[in-house]
Write a structure and sequence with these properties.
Distance between the termini: 38 Å
Helix content: 40-55%
Number of domains: 1
Structural class: alpha/beta
Number of strands: 8
CATH topology: TIM Barrel
CATH class: Alpha Beta
CATH architecture: Alpha-Beta Barrel
Number of helices: 12
Amino acid sequence: MNLPKQVRLVEVGPRDGLQNEQQPISVADKVRLVDDLSAAGLSYIEVGSFVAPKWVPQMAGSAEVFARIQQRPGVTYAALTPNMKGFEAALESGVKEVAVFAAASEAFSQKNINCSIAESLQRFVPLMEAAQQHGVRVRGYVSCVLGCPYDGEVAPEQVAWVAKELYAMGCYEVSLGDTIGTGSAGKVRHLFNVVGRDVPRHQLAGHFHDTYGQALANIYASLLEGIGVFDSSVAGLGGCPYAKGATGNVATEDVLYLLNGLGIETAIDLDKLIAAGQRICTVLGKDNGSRVARALLQGATG
């Protein structure tokens, strides 16, 4: 097997993981989470999102979080900026890398941002131009790549078109997201085969939700296709809003355990990562969503 020798994990817990939490989370707790994650060896952390607070109240303090975190050399601290106003706010906060997102499903695009896929891509043009002028790198997300809650199956060719557009626009990397977690290993391999014709595989990433318990299998399938970047969320933070009670983001601890078992280098300390996840779960008053963390913590106390 020609598996990647190294894998980069994109930690989305502080943004994607926390944004749907209903209870208020203090800036201090968010800062502690980011600092804990960078201390554990994560080299890429999505810290927050610059969006209107009325849409995502939990991300209202992102500028303050960026101002207070201890930024370590060699670590990317990124932010989601869905529009030009968000990009300008991120720029003011000294953010050096941002992310934009589009959907592979027309229905999902209309329901979530009230415009077509083509219109959503057009909105990114001034943002991409500004990013280039200011030396800010842009990462792209494509959602619903393996299924949509409204449209059902999504054709790989449709995903490839959106990914190619983002790549051509200037996104240095495009993350393909199984938003509702319905994907399976065979479909994942076929997807990367199709998209890989238009976007180089070393500039593609996988973002898998564990709603159907397939996330780790899908990551392994992606590794077999030469994909070396994966999004994950510490302690499995972030539920799936389209399946009540279902899990959402795959836990970083579980992905790391898989990679360690395959001998793939990440430079991440599993014990420190587990401690970071357990600390934020205690703050939130919720159970740890990582199976690896639960098993090892029970082993330590049992």
